[in-house]
Amino acid sequence: MAGGQRLDRVHLLWVLVMFESYNANGKVQYSSRFPHPRLTLKATQTTVDAGYGSQAVGSLSKATFSYTATNPMPAFRVSSGGFTVTATVNTGGNNWTTEVLVSAGIGATVTMYLFDTTAPVPGATGTARMESWDPSGNLIFALSMQPARIVGKTGSGSGNGFTGDPARRYAALMPTYHQRIAVNDTGNVGSPTRYTVNYYNTRISIDDAAGTVQSLQSNYRRFGNATNPGNSTYGSPRSIVFDVTNY
Amino acid sequence: MPAGFEFYDAAGNVVTGPDDFVFKYLGAISVSSSSNPSGSISDGNLANATDLDGWFMSTNGGGVGPEIVVTSSGVSWSNPWPAGNVWTGFIYYGFW
Hints:
The structure holds two protein chains of two kinds.
Chain A: E1 20-22, E2 28-31, E3 38-46, E4 48-49, E5 61-68, E6 73-78, E7 83-92, E8 95-102, E9 109-116, E10 131-133, E11 139-142, E12 149-154, E13 162-163, E14 170-173, E15 177-184, E16 195-207, E17 212-225, E18 232-235, E19 239-243
Antiparallel strand pairs in A: 1-2, 3-9, 4-5, 5-8, 6-9, 7-8, 10-11, 12-19, 13-17, 14-19, 15-16, 15-18, 16-17
Chain B: E1 7-8, E2 14-16, E3 21-22, E4 24-32, E5 39-42, E6 52-58, E7 67-70, E8 74-78, E9 88-95
Antiparallel strand pairs in B: 1-2, 4-9, 5-8, 6-9, 7-8
């Protein structure tokens, strides 16, 4: 080595450095202990015929989004009418498909904001940077990321909505709610010949001018089931509201 | 404004400030109506929550799923469906 010195030993000192910020209520906001889902995809679809025919609730159309994600949190907003997420299905590996049913005719615009735990992209050398890794070496925060900002929830039924700021834009993730009621079309109770199935889901309506997100009820029917699938309810009719302003 | 962490996007917009809540992902639980139709896990990290939630993502496309309850100590699930309604997928959960 320079100056004739010899390096006999290298002492490595491992220090666990942890970055955390806190909200005003003292709860953790960002932490190198946890992955923070970030916006990985913003996609827009125009609705097409939902194939449900004439419904008592009026026109229905649908949009289908296919995407890749590790731990998906898909939030949606529509240009007009309420909407409900009727199905999210893994189609193999990290591939997913989500169907959104919109209470409007064909041609409504649906925008998906997909949040996922995929690692953010580090900033380039020479730019403003701040990054944080978890103890396993996974990058979990970078200034380039657009985090999943949650501003509230909507509850079940009318009047349990979210009121925010008209200057902000919101999208909603609908965790899980499903109610199914089978109606015997033959009029003969117990006859297995034909059933109509009524599905009830949470319907979300976002009003930008008012800055509100409302939770209503949506129902739609599918016809001609040969057997009675049974009546059931699971989940609760609610949504998680994201602030997607400037996203 | 309280003291806190704030950062901006390239256009100068605040991405998050000290009053903003962001989601922290804690895990995915593999569940199935056939192998583990009901169960629970404990996760002490949920005690950090201002609020929390969990949801089911299907891998079989059956249109049904488990009843999910998330509390400040863990996640539990059960099967509310009549026999013959098969569901398989993941419960994702976390807090903010």
